[in-house]
Specification:
InterPro entries: Glutaredoxin-like, Glutaredoxin-like_YDR286C, Thioredoxin-like_sf. With about 90 residues, this protein is of the alpha+beta class. The protein has one domain: Glutaredoxin (3-Layer(aba) Sandwich). A 4-stranded mixed beta sheet has the order 2-1-3-4, covered by helices on one side. Helix 1 links the parallel strand 1 and strand 2.
């Protein structure tokens, strides 16, 4: 039975840091899936905070925010090496 890791990336349109974060997360997720396809299921969801008043109020000044299994992993900038380490630790 494989493990499930849930990633949530909180973003908003027109945010250049969000665009960078999306690229960084996509690269890490792709590499991680290639290496762990049999053992770990990785679910990635991007959420536009402008579509949710509560998220918009909470994270308006911190986006992008990356959550792993509901816990904040990073905000503003995504460190690819730190992210892959966190994913490997959970695998």
């Amino acid at each position: 039975m494989s493990r499930l890791i849930s990633l949530t990336l909180l973003t908003k349109p027109g945010c250049h840091l969000c665009e960078e974060a999306i690229k960084a997360v996509d690269l890490v997720v792709s590499a991680f899936r290639d290496q762990n396809s049999d053992d770990v299921q990785l679910d990635l969801t991007e959420v536009n905070i402008l579509e949710n008043d509560e998220l918009n109020q909470k994270y308006a000044e911190e986006i992008p925010v990356l959550q792993i299994n509901g816990e904040t992993h990073a905000y503003w900038r995504i460190d690819s090496e730190r992210l892959i380490k966190a994913l490997n630790d959970l695998a």
